[in-house]
Amino acid sequence: MSHQELPHSFKLLTIWLLVGLVVFLGFKAWERERAASRFQLAGQTVVLTRADDGHFHWPGRVGDIEVDFLVDTGATATALPQSLAERAGLKPLGAVRTQTAAGTVQGFVAKADLSLDGGVRADRLTVTVLPTLGAPLLGMDVLGRLHFTQKPGELRIEPQP
């Protein structure tokens, strides 16, 4: 390889890396836009659009940590992954065994301050913390305080009168 080929090869490599970076950043921007479009606020009504995974997601926070809650009308209680609970500084209040789709799981209960986009809050909510849970689940302990209706691909949530 001569000294003249190296700069040309380096230029081609640089161009391809830049093209890859632009494609990657464009894809990430598209993903953010799609996630943002799944949550809309119409007055005091929160409108969630079904995601590609078939579920409704509601952005919010546990303490100061941003999370994407999976809306789970089949869950009695709100549940958090243990890694999230640890980052949020939640302290175990007691052990719990719970039945999940994967079987019986051991975890603990804790108190957490939840806030959901659209102004819904649940302060000092008792949550179940599970070590192998993949995503935070928003259960009926919060959803039951709200009025919600569902039509194909859309979940509308309003505060109780």
Walkthrough of the structure:
- The protein is α+β, with helices and mostly antiparallel strands.
- It has two domains: 1-37; 39-159, Cathepsin D, subunit A, domain 1.
- 27% of the residues lie in helices and 44% in strands.
- It has helices at residues 5-37, 82-87, 140-143, and strands at 39-42, 45-49, 57-62, 65-71, 79-81, 94-100, 103-116, 120-130, 137-138, 146-151, 154-159.
- The strands form two sheets. Strands 3, 4, 5, 6, 7, 8 and 9 form a seven-stranded mixed β-sheet that branches.
- Strand 6 (94-100) and strand 7 (103-116) form a beta hairpin.
- 20% of the residues are buried.
Summarize the structure.
Helix content is 27%, strand content 44%.
Sum up the structure in keywords.
161 residues, alpha+beta, Cathepsin D, subunit A, domain 1, 2 domains, four-stranded antiparallel β-sheet
Please give the alpha-carbon distance between the first and last residues: 77 Å
CATH C-level class of the largest domain is Mainly Beta
Helix content: 25-40%
Based on DSSP secondary structure assignment, what is the total number of beta strands? 11
The largest β sheet comes out as: 7 strands, mixed
Helix/strand class = alpha+beta
How large is the count of helical segments?
A: 3
**Radius of gyration from the CA trace?**
22 Å
Give the CATH architecture of the largest domain.
Beta Barrel
CATH superfamily of the largest domain: Acid Proteases
CATH topology of the largest domain: Cathepsin D, subunit A, domain 1
Per DSSP, what share of the residues sits in E-state strands of 2 or more residues?
35-45%
Average pLDDT confidence is 86
User: How would the global form be characterised?
Assistant: extended
Which series of helices and strands comes N to C? Answer: HEEEEEHEEEEHEE
